[in-house]
Amino acid sequence: MKHRIIEGRLEYTSRKPGMEGQNRGFETFMFTRHGDGKVTLRAHCEIEEPEPTVMRDVIYSLDENSQPMDLHVRLTVGDAFMGSGWMRFDGTDVEMESFGPSIGRLSQRVKAELPLTGFGTHPIVSDGYMLSTVDWGTEDKKLLNFYLPSPDHRGATPPQIAQVKIGALYIGKEEVTVPAGTFTCKHLQFIDDASIVPGTGGMAGEHPPYDVWITDDEDGIFVQGGVGGYMMTWYELVELKR
Questions:
Q1: Peptide bond before 50: cis, by omega within 30 degrees of 0?
Q2: Domain 4-241, architecture per CATH
Q3: Domain boundaries, the chain
């Protein structure tokens, strides 16, 4: 085989007072890193707390330049079908074909604002991988521009094209130990605050600061991270096979 496969599992826990360490969901993922430089991510996510529950299945492909190619998403909220969609970027336009009980059958096409960082897909592992595709060699603060199928903080709305700009900060390198092992990581933070990174503030209301640690290598695997503010969540890599 000329491709490489990476598989893993993340556990979601709470940091809310009285719920510290309580399991609130999980995520399994698989990266296929092809010999021609393209990458496909498959992820299954289940959020059990807070209600309503969210289940998401995603297949996301990027080209050899880390630009999005296509995204498939299927969403269940409160254990009821919310919608499914297919999103594509051709270098100029973003198009989407989707269906959901509340939106019916929907076709969309928009001229993309460039440069494009990627597609926001909502799986936690994808958040980390998006940051790994950014060049942090010369700056520690960047404005990321991406399109996603839901601007909701949990992605719990029927698939429709949304553009979001969010800031990202590079904090430094750290050694991190989690159940899956010990890793040299890049520590970064998503910031949805225009006073820190101009042009941000688009995630359907300000998103709390979101710290992310990813492996300091080409794989950019999410190792640990957490969201503050009203969310108070924590994510940790508990299994990894490369």
A1: yes
A2: Beta Barrel (2.40)
A3: 4-241
pLDDT per residue over 45-94, tens digit each?
Answer: 999 988 999 999 999 999 999 999 999 999 999 999 999 999 999 999 99
Q: What's the CA gap between 176 and 178, in Å, rounded?
A: 7
Output the DSSP codes for 72-140: EEEEEETTEEEEEEEEEE-SSEEEEEEEETTTEEEEEEEEPPSS--EE----HHHHHHHHHTS--SS-S
Prior bond to 52 cis, omega within 30?
Answer: yes
Q: How confident is the model at residue 138 (pLDDT cuts 50, 70, 90)?
A: low
**CA angle centred on 80, ends 75 and 86, rounded to 5°:** 25
Give the DSSP letter of residue 132: H
Residue 205 scores a pLDDT above 60: no
First to last CA, the chain: 14
Residues 106, 93 contacting (CB under 8 angstroms): no
pTM here is 0.91
Rounded CA-CA distance 171/163 in Å is: 26
What is the phi-psi region of residue 4: left when phi exceeds 0, alpha when psi lies from -120 to 50, beta otherwise?
beta
Please state the rounded mean pLDDT for residues 24-46: 97
Rounded to a whole number of angstroms, the CA Rg of the chain reads 17
Q: Is the pLDDT of residue 204 over 50?
A: no
Longest Cα pair distance anywhere in the chain, in angstroms?
49
